[in-house]
Specification:
Number of helices: 14
Oligomer: single chain
Strand content: 15-25%
Structural class: alpha/beta
CATH class of the largest domain: Alpha Beta
Bound molecules: zinc ion
Shape: globular
CATH architecture of the largest domain: 3-Layer(aba) Sandwich
Number of strands: 19
CATH superfamily of the largest domain: Vaccinia Virus protein VP39
Length: 476
């Protein structure tokens, strides 16, 4: 793979300035789920007029809406934005404190667009805010919010129910990077605001992707992330659509695995911006918002090169030998899996099972496999099957779940390493260790897989005592 530098007339106009002449930075390909409305390939381009970097996707807003209503992972009870994971919870509490300090009255109307599990709204409710509303494309998310007695509606910005009312604060957090029709979204925001209403937008900071390039190739460039904002471009977008920048906040929200891997290297991974309405365009953006519009392309180009280098290193590593010579079961059918299955080296592998906890994915076909729940899909696999945990955000949870399944399987976590060098192949062998079998008292009941019913409650998983790495399992 190499980085092509060719110009094109983009299929999709620039989400910031609306022009359509662009430079191709790279082309991404994906294995897609059966019946998925998303395209299997798109160019990552840089707008020649303003320097914004985005996916030149042939998909329409309607295609993406359909994807989020029926294919996305945000409705899982431990999904992103649910606040159930420690790092996610900390991030939500911090956001709630920051916003609470900027909202006057406790009865101010706060509308969260793309609220997912409603973690932020619940945190604001705990701080005494009483007029809350959530909007999300997922019916399941909306039901869960209603169950928590927070008014919620299924919908998209631009298609909102009248009962939702107008907001004194509209929050649109980690949504804008997913939207095809960015201009339409910004215009729709005005209609949703009271005259003094404010908007809080938060997005991943694309200028910081390259700080995390070593953790997982192309982690931030996938089918769902189609707009790659840095501060100058986000501010420019808002200014062009009648908003004034009132305050800027940078956050370190990298998921906990990245932070662990990076050994606290840190960096700013998210960008928050508080906006006031400025339809006459009287306000000028703070100077920090105007500097270096060419920086984004440089940062993303570095990120793409680092990711490509890591992919090439993987292709040459022990991982590549392992996946070519063994039956593979993949745990995780999300964006990461859809990306890796389209990379050379993976296409020719012998994938015998793909499992996922997301009921939206189960039963659908990916790379010729029907996605099944783990309890079903990981049974009766060929000897020597290698389970690859390919679900970046949930890797640790899956690792412990795999340990609970009485599976005679080797597993590796596809998470790579912080330094861009192929990692030593870490494998864990769970329960297949013959010594453990021999010493297991015959009266002991079999260990059972934790059952995760889809009613939203995770049954307590018994605590496992830490045990030293299994020597037999560390070497294949
Ligand atoms: Zn542009």
């Amino acid at each position: 793979m190499h980085t092509a530098h060719t110009e094109k007339t983009a299929l999709r106009p620039c989400p910031v300035c609306g022009k359509n002449q662009a430079e191709i930075l790279t082309t991404m390909r994906y294995a897609v789920l059966e019946r998925s409305p998303l395209p299997a390939a798109s160019d990552i381009v840089c707008c020649l007029a303003c320097g914004m970097v985005y996916a030149d996707t042939p998909g329409t807003q309607a295609d993406y809406d359909r994807h989020y209503a029926g294919f996305a992972a945000y409705e899982q009870t431990n999904g992103i934005g649910s606040g159930t994971d420690e790092n996610d919870a900390r991030r939500i509490e911090e956001s709630a404190d920051w916003l609470a300090a900027r909202i006057g009255a406790k009865n101010a109307r706060i509308i969260d667009i793309g609220c997912a599990q409603g973690g932020l709204l619940k945190a604001l409710s705990r701080r005494g805010f009483s007029s809350l509303a959530g909007i999300d494309p997922s019916a399941r998310c909306v039901e869960r919010l209603k169950a928590a007695e927070i008014p919620a509606w299924q919908g998209y910005l631009g298609h909102l129910p009248a009962e939702c009312g107008k907001g004194d604060l509209v929050v649109i957090s980690h949504v804008l990077e997913h939207v095809v029709d960015v201009a339409g979204t910004l215009s729709a925001l005005h209609k949703l605001l009271t005259p003094e209403g404010k908007v809080y937008i938060e997005v991943p900071d694309a200028a910081g992707y390259h700080n995390m390039a070593g953790t997982l190739p192309f982690q931030f460039i996938h089918q769902e992330h189609i707009n790659h904002f840095d501060l100058p471009h986000l501010a420019m977008l808002c200014t062009l659509h009648g908003f004034g920048v009132s305050e800027i906040v940078r956050k370190s929200i990298g998921d906990r695995h990245d932070i662990d891997l990076d050994g606290g290297r840190g960096g700013d991974f998210a960008l928050g911006i508080l906006l006031i309405q400025d339809k006459q365009n009287k306000l000028s953006a703070p100077s920090t918002c105007r500097e270096d519009r060419a920086g984004l392309k440089r940062h993303i180009a570095t990120y793409i090169l680092e990711s490509q280098r890591l992919l090439a290193a993987q292709a040459a590593s022990s991982l590549s030998i392992e996946i070519k010579n063994r039956p593979i079961a993949l745990w995780g059918a999300g964006m990461q899996t859809q990306r890796i299955l389209a990379t050379p080296g993976w296409k020719e592998t012998n994938i015998v099972a793909i499992v996922d906890r997301d009921p939206n994915k189960q039963g659908k076909s990916l790379a010729g496999c029907i996605i099944e729940p783990p309890e079903k899909g990981l049974r009766h696999l060929p000897d020597n099957t290698l389970v690859i945990i390919s679900a970046h955000h949930y890797a640790e949870e899956i690792k412990s779940e795999l340990a609970m399944l009485d599976a005679d399987l080797f597993a590796i976590i596809l998470k790579d390493n912080p330094h861009g060098i192929p990692p030593p192949l870490k494998t864990y062998r769970y329960h297949g260790n013959p010594r453990r079998r021999i010493h297991r008292p015959p009266s002991r009941p079999p260990r059972r897989a934790p059952y995760l019913p889809h009613d939203g409650r995770r049954r307590d998983v018994p605590e496992r005592r830490a045990r030293p790495p299994n020597r037999a399992g560390n070497h294949l």
